[in-house]
């Protein structure tokens, strides 16, 4: 959310949007903007105030990738649209955190977020399509280190590059797991061993 002051007579519509990682479809940012697609260009340039978000964007760029933009709610023009949009942004921040997404937002995550007060509470429930989108691809967190492998360990065991490992995830051959706190990705050892027996021989690469 921008900290810029908004005129009291502002009656523009706003969009609530998310930025997700194409590698695992997890949401890393929730924001609001009058035009989410224009704001998306700002994010892609690495102009965010969040150091963690800039690092994430740079990591994706290094792999030839880009965050995925989703507009998840539209606040129509009318009375107090900015105040409503801020309150809805805070709602979606809390909801995505509850579902286990590793948000990199500062306001609402690292710093307290106090949206402008509105006269009437404006509450809506997400539709099924939005709920499915917000649902992480995995729920389980690694509980026993011996049962899980890091990305580097999985690559070495399978004799593949990180890019090929990501392809296995996209193709549904492997699942990613993450601890409740932290961004490090893990793979279940038993699933890696199963894939080792069935994956195509041509996938074997020089490390």
Helical content stands at 25-40%
Q: How many domains, as an integer? A: 2
CATH architecture verdict of the largest domain: 3-Layer(aba) Sandwich
Distance between the termini: 43 Å
Q: What is the arithmetic mean of pLDDT?
A: 77
Instruction: Please tally the β strands and state the result.
Output: 6
CATH class value of the largest domain: Alpha Beta
Please provide the ordered H/E string of secondary-structure elements: EEHHEHHEHHEEH
Q: What's the overall geometry?
A: elongated
Indicate the radius of gyration in whole angstroms: 20 Å
Main β-sheet, spatial strand arrangement: 2-1-3
Strand content: 5-15%
Low-confidence stretches: 1-7, 118-123
Structural class: alpha+beta
Description:
This protein has helices at 36-44, 51-62, 81-98, 128-134, 151-158, 162-170, 189-198, and strands spanning 14-20, 27-33, 68-75, 148-150, 177-178, 185-188. The protein is α+β, with helices and mostly antiparallel strands and 207 residues long. The strands form two sheets. It has a three-stranded antiparallel β-sheet with strand order 2-1-3. A hairpin with a 6-residue loop joins β1 and β2. The chain is elongated and about 60 Å long.
């Amino acid at each position: 959310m921008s900290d810029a002051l908004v005129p009291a007579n502002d009656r523009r519509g706003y969009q609530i949007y998310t930025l997700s990682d194409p590698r695992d479809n997890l949401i890393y940012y929730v924001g609001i903007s009058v035009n989410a697609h224009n704001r998306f260009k700002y994010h892609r340039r690495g102009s965010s105030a969040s150091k963690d978000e800039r690092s994430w964007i740079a990591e994706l760029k290094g792999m030839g990738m880009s965050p995925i933009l989703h507009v998840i709610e539209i606040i129509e023009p009318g009375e107090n649209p900015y105040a409503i949009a801020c309150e809805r942004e805070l709602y979606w921040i809390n909801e995505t955190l509850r579902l286990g997404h590793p948000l990199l937002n500062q306001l609402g995550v690292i710093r307290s977020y106090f949206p402008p007060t509105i006269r009437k509470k404006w509450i809506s429930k997400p539709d099924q399509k939005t709920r499915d989108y917000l649902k992480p691809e995995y729920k389980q967190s690694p509980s026993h280190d011996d049962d899980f492998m890091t990305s580097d360990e999985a690559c070495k065991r399978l004799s593949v590059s990180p890019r090929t490992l990501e392809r296995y995830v996209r193709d549904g051959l492997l699942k990613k797991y993450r601890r409740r706190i932290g961004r490090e990705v893990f793979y279940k050892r038993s699933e890696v061993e199963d894939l080792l027996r069935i994956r195509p021989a041509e996938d074997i690469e020089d490390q």
